[in-house]
Amino acid sequence: MQNFIGLIHKDPDSDYGVSFPDFPGVATAGTDLDDARRMAEEALAFHVEGMIEDGEAIPEPSSLEAIMSDPENGDAVAVLIPLRTPAKKAVRVNITLAEDLLRAIDAHAEAHGLTRSGFLARAAERQMMSDDNPNNIRGYALSA
């Protein structure tokens, strides 16, 4: 399992933000440090899953020294975030959505550092986890 450096930022009256220097544009936030780390693991996993689906190469993790030598990172706290690669093979699907809904999904996903696929997978997992379903394990419904 690889670990990537996440940078935790905290401004007064804000949540704890987490960004990934090795994945520009990937960012998330949490209400406390534990929540921020949990959200960072999810965001990293979903982003990398999308990269794999798109056939993109996953970068090697940068060193702490390289990341902290950037003056823009001086106010952040560096933490290691494990990349939990998906055990399942990603499968490409074709779905139909209203054009305005698709635009809204893409805008929301981009604003949260996710790919379209990552966002849709995350939304589906959260919905399945919130459903009152006894056959629901870790967000994946099992066939009866």
UniProtKB/TrEMBL annotation:
Residues 7-124 form the HicB-like antitoxin of toxin-antitoxin system domain. Pfam families: HicB_lk_antitox. GO terms for biological process: regulation of DNA-templated transcription. Gene3D superfamilies: 3.30.160.250. PANTHER family: ANTITOXIN HICB (PTHR34504), UPF0150 PROTEIN SSL0259 (PTHR34504:SF2). This is 14.9 kDa protein in rep-hol intergenic region ORF14. It comes from Agrobacterium albertimagni AOL15.
